[in-house]
Sequence to fold (812 residues):
Amino acid sequence: MIDEELVQLLTPEGERISNPDYESTLTSDEIFNLYRDMVIIRRLCNESTSLQRQGQLALWAPVQGQEAAQIGAGRALAPKDFSFPSYREHGVAWCRGVPPEDMLRVFRAVTTGGWDPQKYRHSVPTVVLGNQTLHAVGYAMGIQRDGAEEAVLTFFGDGATSQGDVLESFVWAASFNAPVVFFCQNNQWGISTPSSVQSKIPLYHRAHGFGFPGVRVDGNDVLAVYEVTKRALENARVGGGPMLIEAYTYRIGAHTTSDDPTRYRIDAEVEVWKHRDPVERVKSLLVREFKTKKAAFDKVAAEAEALATKLRVDVLAMGRPDPISMFDHVYAAPHPLIDEGRLEMVELGVSGGAD
Amino acid sequence: MSEETFLLPDVGEGLTEAEIVEWKVKVGDVVVLNQPLIDIETAKAVVELPSPYAGTVVTLHGNVGDVIEVHKPLITFDVGGDASAARAPAGAQAPAEQEAAVGEGRQAVLIGYGVANEDAVVTRQHRRQGSAKAPAAPSAPVVETATAAALAPRSTPPVRLYAKQHGVDLSTVTGSGRDGLITRDDVERAIGGAVAAPRISAPITGPNTTSRFVGRELESWSSGPKEERIPVKGVLRSMADAMVQSAFSAPHAAAWVRVDATRTMELLDSLKQQSSLSGVRLSPLTIVALAVCDAARHFPGINSSFDADAGEVIVRRSVNLGIAANTPRGLIVPNIKGADQLDLAAMASALADLVDKARQNTTTPGEMAGTTLTITNVGPYGVDAAIPILPPGTGAILAVGQIAKAPWVVDDQVVVRRVVELALAFDHRQIDGAMASAVLAHIGRYLHDPAAAIIAG
Fold:
């Protein structure tokens, strides 16, 4: 099932594997911080699912199982790089410094964005499937024209690789040798469609057809994801062009809170992947190699718990936006059609929010 | 003490109701935040709801099996002294709930599947508060007073357009649709018959009787809505999935035969007099079940399934006899394990047990798994025969019609006999017409003279 060309630096049991092309450069503190990120984002995600079940969010897209892919990639970004997520990259948003409550605003349907993309160098959640890859390539072409030494990282799933937008963005990125890294989290399921139906070849092989390299990394191995992504971004920054990273992982939970995965996949498959848990893998390494003490793990758990409590308080305190504000950020400059629409709404008497 | 009530949330982007599957707490339980409270089944999924409060359970607003509307009370807690400490801050009601307070109905789906009940209409309502109103600054929110009078009448965009084109003010029209929805017919009536369709002087309303349909009581023709959408879930979904899976994978063929079952009925009458069998519920189905098992022993090929993936036919020398059962929830097919090993009394009690469990909704998934051969008894519904669809993974199913008096030729004389029609549907990939006919004829002979067949073994 797993390709022999899969880049892996840790076994599922947390033992190191040497790889001639990718060597782990991380210190024990840095690895511990990756563990901390993963524990926190998992806990925040669970709280968000609970909030949805309690009627406080309209929807939630769980991240469980994909923490290593998101944290490894998110931490590989340099401060000036720019990232373009889909709707599930809460782990990447965390790495970029987006406050957790801001990640939930769009899922509570009180905003169309949630944060200032420039402030965090991280775009807002994109629900239109694969759309963000075009934004990413456009931004990367802008970097080229500025002559800046920056790179773009864009995220999408295995399902989105069947979307025209993604394939078009591959073409443009290749044609212009744009400094963009395509990060595909292959979590095996495009809602209920298995990845094997969507591509008859390993997804990372597709890159070769477009004219840039592709690599498959164990998406549940945070060390490997970090090194592969870091290398790809470095390469892009110095004019090496685009690259496709396929992070081979698994969505342990539902596609979203509106989905029931028991209807289309078998428990045995989920159990297999639970044995490849990304968090436990790093924890094993920390205990074995760095003798990390229980007190350190407990401290992270307590920190995650406190963040979850704060998240709940923040979400429950969120006000309702003025509907008119939805016209504010469509275009950077005034636009006659938008002005007309806004005026029409005002004439209809639509206004008012509640704080 | 102060109480907080958890209203059933819309957990799936536009759901209107959910069924209670299991309570995980009871009145008096002390629960912590996010402790699992209940499993509910929506049109999309079975979902576990975690507690939004820490406190003591005071009231459960429904029993297992009840269908609760979204935003109606589900569970009430005593959250101790100061309620504000435990509950969401004032004004922090979820947007979805606020929206529902203004207009109920289907919300657009953001990610994932759509919702089945398309008949619920989106009714985002714009408040009209005079045209001179200045745009409200975000810092000066308008307090909402969504009284019924302030709301636009409920209708649909095409009907609104139609009304506008004909100069009809919808606020003067009374809606006859669901929840007062104004329909095209209502607008036509308001126009005054100028464009209305020819009227029938005495409208035909139909009977006021209800009937069962896919496991629920259906409203009558006269009182029910003009169009109704029923979510495909639970037993209905199981039935639909099984039938589609079977119908589009196994090529079905059928054979049928009429049988003089007079001796079967006579045998049953005499057995009912036997003191040793008192308390045993005997019916024609008992004899049919014995006949089917006997046919399988003589022709094991009928007790087979086609494994397309493996490229093999699986012949089984043990019968798990499925019985199609009409239950309050709908059609299910539990089976009698090892039915070929049962004698008459054991078969009768196994059937009685199976029927009781099905009626009481206590049939377990295990009792529905592994069927090898099936009987569907359509006779009680007053029909002669049916051509059934195979339960997935089985090779044959026998439909038994009503046993009714009919003219029958015996020794060239037309006499009155008790006649039954049997139809055998089979998977024609592995079972051919010759074998199906042999099996059917064997069952027919058994019912024609059951005593002889039982003795012959």
Strands of chain A lie at 82-84, 152-157, 180-186, 189-190, 193-194, 214-218, 243-248. Residues 322-355 of chain A form one domain. Chain A has two domains: 28-318, 322-355.
